[in-house]
Structures are given as C-alpha cells and as structure tokens.
Amino acid sequence: YQPGRTALTDVSFRIQAGERIAVVGPSGGGKSTLASLLLGFIEPDEGQIYYAGRPLTEIEISSWREKVVWVPQKPYLFNDTIAANLKVGHPSANQDELVRAAKLAQADDFILSLPNGYETVVGERGVRLSAGEAQRIALARAFLKDAELVILDEATSHLDLENEAAVEKAISSLLKSRTVLVIAHRLSTVRQA
Ligand code: ADP
Prior knowledge:
4-stranded parallel sheet, binds adenosine-5'-diphosphate
C-alpha cells in the first residue's frame, strides 16, 4: 500500500445477517484488501466500517475477531500437532469439540489416517498436507470458532476430485446459517450468492 495510491475507492455495501455476498474482480482489484479491512488487519484511510450500527473503531478488536473467521486459500499451518493447529481460534476447545469440528470439515477421516492422528505434527517440520487437506484444517478451525461472519477466500488451486468434493461439502455446511463474504473464483459460487 503506497501513499497517494488508493487500493480501494468508493466502496460501499451492506451485508445483512444471514446473507451471502460474493466479491469478484481481477487480480489486484482489492478483494483481499477488503477482507483485511473487515478483519481489522488494516484500517481505512477514509470512511468507516460498521457492525450492527457501531463503527468498528469503537469495538474492541478482540471481541470483533471472535465474531469473524477468515478461511484463506492457503491456510498457515504451524509446526505443531493437528490438535494445536485446530485450536488456533479457540484455545480452550476440548478433544470432543475438536473431533466434532473436524468431522464437520470432512477432515476427521484423513486426520485419523495420519501416523499419530490428532497428535501428528504437521507443517514444514512435520507431515506435509495436501492443499485440500490444509483447507479442511482451515474449515475445521472455522467450525470450532463458530463465528457469525465467515470471510472465505475460495480456493483457486486445483484439488483432486476426492478433496474437491470434501471441501465443497464442508464449505456448504459451514456457510449454512452464517453471514458470508466470499471472494469468489467460480461462477457456481457467484450464482449461489
Ligand atoms: P485482489 O485480492 O483483488 O487481488 P488486493 O487487495 O490484493 O487485490 O490488491 C489491491 C491493491 O492493493 C493492489 O494494487 C495491490 O498492489 C495493493 N496491495 C495489496 N496488498 C498489499 C501489500 N501487502 N503491500 C502493498 N500493496 C498491497
């Protein structure tokens, strides 16, 4: 972000609770910037973001971040166990909650097939997960957190068919009864929004 060069201008929209909004546009068009603004990673130079009528600047960032979950295309996995990686947004979660979230994210089966199940170390110094598996970890984190607003950056990477189907299924159950802003890369997603 360079001074004097705006990444986004004249952006104004409203998301009703329970609505699903798709954002489409060319690379560099400002989609990720929009997500970063909503997540409070960056602040707008001008204008305001409101949640339930209150400016975000008046809301404690930690309480705001409890309400929002970010499902990126390429989730970051720590060099730690699957369990620790799942607990990122909800450190006090117990094993039952982890398993429930992993099941909802279609991740429980592959986790159990790893050498030490939920205690398997992943990341650069551990077991490497495929793109589809890593996405399901991100989705499980989102289920565990049970946030109101999901900001989803839809995957563009090519997944094998089995992973693709599992990810799709997990996403559609995550998005049910939540408010969603999806950075969409597929026409089918745009149609559903
Ligand atoms: P999209 O997600 O639609 O591809 P981005 O929000 O990433 O678009 O980018 C919008 C604009 O903001 C671009 O001009 C880009 O160069 C700039 N930008 C995005 N992220 C950064 C960053 N971390 N540092 C500097 N400029 C950035």
